Amino acid sequence: MTPVLERLIGELQKLPGIGRKTAQRLTFFILRMGKDEVDELAGAIKEAKSRLKYCSTCFDFTEVDPCMFCSDILRQQDTICVVEEPADVVTIEKTGRYKGLYHILHGAISPIDNIGPDELKIRELLFRVEKNTVREVIVATNPTTEGEATAIYIARLLKPLGIRITRIAQGVPMGSDLDLADEVTVGRALEGRREIE
Q1: How far apart are CA 138 and CA 168, in angstroms?
Q2: pLDDT of 130-153, one tens digit each?
Q3: Where are the domains of the chain?
Q4: For residue 194, what is the enclosing H or E element?
Q5: Domain 3-51 is of which CATH architecture?
Q6: DSSP character at residue 173
Q7: Bridge partners, 165 (sequence order)
Q8: HEC profile of the chain
Q9: Using 50, 70 and 90 to split pLDDT, how confident is the model at 193?
């Protein structure tokens, strides 16, 4: 295999969930694409990287600050759904059942990976809750050990503030990521949320 092919396979393999075989398939698919299509793909990646930034309120990806969710006055301003990653927002929005605001942590507490609360957007969440009239915080972290630990940590921090803190129901299988679940499952999990003890 040529060094150029190896490099492209290696770069694609760095993407999450992409093993060597998938990287090879993607490489050969890209090489069969027309030059204009490849230029469009490369341009879309470059444009996204240069134009997208984090919303200063919820930390979702956006082109304008605040983002479309934070600036939408028709959304429920007293409810915040806390998720691990921006992809989780897309999953929840697809359900069509949630009309509140979001807060993206950009990860979960994971001592094994040296990710503690200070590496996440937890401090910013506390600030938002304290300065705004928030009635409920829905913790929709992934049903993994790290996600559960993060949910418990957030609940303990927010309890003294006297607001309702709920956790999405376990329609999402334990150990999986929220963005991998279908919209119906996530929608039911949102509706069946429960108080965090």
Answers
A1: 7
A2: 998 999 999 999 888 899 999 999
A3: 3-51, 61-195
A4: strand 194-195
A5: Orthogonal Bundle (1.10)
A6: P
A7: 137
A8: CCHHHHHHHHHHHCCCCCCHHHHHHHHHHHHHCCHHHHHHHHHHHHHHHHHCEECCCCCCEECCCCCCCCCCCCCEEEEEEEECCHHHHHHHHHHCCCCEEEEECCCCCEHHHCECHHHCCHHHHHHHHHHCCCCEEEECCCCCHHHHHHHHHHHHHHHHHCCEEEECCCCCCCCCCHHHCCHHHHHHHHHCCEECC
A9: confident
Summary mean pLDDT of the chain: 91
Residue pLDDT, tens place only, 26-78: 999 999 999 999 999 999 999 999 999 999 999 999 999 999 999 999 999 99
Tokens of 150: 């993060």
Please enumerate in sequence order all residues whose Cβ is within 8 A of that of 1, keeping only pairs 6 or more positions apart, or say none. 9
pLDDT for the residue 178: 67
59 with 124: CB under 8 angstroms? yes
* Structural class in CATH, domain 61-195: alpha beta
| Backbone conformation region of residue 107, classed left if phi is above 0, alpha if psi is from -120 to 50, else beta | left
